[in-house]
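$ run holo --ligand "S-adenosylmethionine" --emit tokens
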Amino acid sequence: MEPKYRENSKKYWEDVHQSYDSTKIKVDDWLERFDDIIMASTRPIMDLGCGGGNDTKYLTEKGKQVIACDGSEHAIANLKANFPDIREARCMDMLEGFDFEDESFEVIIADLCLHYFGEKDTEMIISELKRILLPGGHIILRVNSINDVNHGAGQGKEIEYHVFESSQGTMKRFFDEADIRKFFKEFEIEYLKEEIMSRYRLEKRLYRVCVRK
Ligand SMILES: C[S@@+](CC[C@H](N)C(=O)[O-])C[C@H]1O[C@@H](n2cnc3c(N)ncnc32)[C@H](O)[C@@H]1O
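-- output --
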């Protein structure tokens, strides 16, 4: 990623999480569909790009152990304060690779955090996720849809195919179904659907996806 996008992204997310209001931690029902996979996991579940902890809240309420990771120091500090019993909360930039052993996880949740990167970085991150996942393990994710016009799809400078410069000077990728099938071609796709999320003020179009290694 070009240094200017990386710096802008770092600053943007630190600002967001510095002023984060923990009363806003809000569980929506998107993970319920995958409860059988989540409940069957005998290992801690990774909440990648955990942000304020919406999914950590869901998982801990289900009694699961969680390893939450995010690139923002403020996000991780907030998470530790709001979930004092969490197994681990780690500040980690996905662009630096993943400092976890091969085949560490049965389930990785990656909610709205895999759509900030160019093609090469996205491929590297997904290949790292594959490496740290056990055979038969799952990644459950949501990413921006190319139809997410309320949140920047098709707007601003197109830096590369389906990747746009946001008004904050960061990179945002918007996926179509073919993009998802291409990036996850080494996985079995068990669920893939474009949906509308109403957690934000304006409705958001995204893809909900579950893939198996
Ligand atoms: C839209 S938020 C999603 C938060 C949470 N998963 C949720 O759905 O509520 C995106 C998160 O990705 C994190 N993030 C962005 N770029 C990252 C990177 N390079 N490495 C690690 N985390 C990153 C941000 O700090 C932010 O918390």
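-- notes --
The CA atoms of residues 106 and 137 lie 4 Å apart.
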